[in-house]
Write a structure and sequence with these properties.
The structure is a homodimer of 211-residue chains. By secondary structure, chain A is of the alpha+beta class. The first copy, chain A, has five helices and 13 strands. Chain A has a seven-stranded antiparallel beta sheet with strand order 4-3-7-10-11-6-5. A three-stranded antiparallel beta sheet of chain A has the order 2-12-13, with no helix packed on it.
Chain lengths: 211, 211
């Protein structure tokens, strides 16, 4: 049976029910760990389900950050240093990655609390996640405040990219199922992906092919 | 073996290689069909891999649209009517959904060309996709121009939501693997998701549980 909800139905839902429902609607998402460093040199690590592709040329990625009405360590740190890292969550470390969402004090490193290894490179302040198969280092480029709910889209420029050679196809496509990257839907439900097919470039009146 | 690329390495890559590589880095994404209506009453349908969750209260979703340097029917239509629909791509119709990305003339309805059924409701201009298990009707709320590459983040307010009752968990979470929704990575590689587990809310010094 198909259910129908209007905006008013949604607005009158119990808060957490609504959070789970509306967060599910965007469907499958990737789960990423974002690494930053605090003014006191503490390596901060936090899980985000809101990383998006912005563009390939120049290479940019974005992340939507919840309203800055309470301390947001990731946001504050990335603004201060101008750098952050985006790291794919490995399927065999999902629970530890999820644990980084706990409200730790700013003096605690989630790398240490959740068992991840900070990996540093010369000339770049923010730590990468040693356990991640795909690791991306970015510099802060711009941000946009969403008026409707005060969330902030942070856009970063890709400066450093690490990935396993075995997952890189001749076309440039990365087989993320081979990388062991996790998928997520909503706030807390994790998935693994199974490739169905890759499809040819679509043109009017031409049949799509598996390639 | 781990490969390393710097920003300059990426900028000097062949164009399509770079497009595939950088588009893969955000990992698993959901694939959605966006429905709009043209000034001449043609039902437009286009696949997007860039739909994101914006917030639950008020309920909002967004979509990142490529630069408006060539005609972008979806963008032009949604600006004109102030409405658009977001519909999950059913796994058994991925090839038809992918085909909507072909550059059809504005006089052609991709619903018709690709075999989808426009579903209309009273008082809402844009068509839903009859074949989709999850269908969302939105009104235009705001937009943000990304300075770095002229892409546009369009934010919409959820007005109407249709989903199968069987997929709605008591928590409000939607089991999208039960909905038969497709996942995608990059531009053209499609996946199905297999649920691993749902995890408890994380708190410092408390063990994460499967729930």
């Amino acid at each position: 049976m198909e259910l129908k909800f209007t905006r008013n139905d949604i607005l009158s839902m119990e808060r957490f029910y609504r959070v789970h429902l509306i967060n599910s609607l965007s469907g499958y998402k990737s789960s990423h760990l974002i690494g930053t460093v605090s003014p006191n040199g503490v390596y901060n690590l936090a899980i985000f389900n809101s990383v998006i592709h912005i563009g390939a040329n120049p290479p940019m990625m974005g992340v939507l950050i919840r309203p800055h009405t309470i301390p947001r360590h990731t946001y504050e740190n990335l603004k201060r240093t101008g750098t952050f890292t985006i790291n794919h969550v490995p399927i065999d470390r999902i629970k530890d990655a999820h644990q980084t969402s706990a409200k730790y004090d700013a003096s605690v490193s989630e790398f240490e609390a959740c068992g991840f290894t900070p990996q540093l490179i010369s000339g770049f302040d923010s730590p990468f996640v040693g356990e991640a198969s795909i690791k991306i280092g970015l510099t802060y480029a711009e941000e946009h405040l969403i008026a409707a709910n005060q969330t902030i889209l942070v856009v970063g420029q890709i400066e450093h990219l690490y990935l396993p050679q075995s997952a890189l196809a001749p076309s440039g496509h990365v087989d993320i199922d081979q990388c062991g990257s996790a998928a997520v839907c909503g706030l807390d439900t994790y998935y693994e992906g199974k490739q169905i097919f890759r499809l040819s470039y679509a043109r009017p009146n031409e049949e799509i092919r598996e390639i």
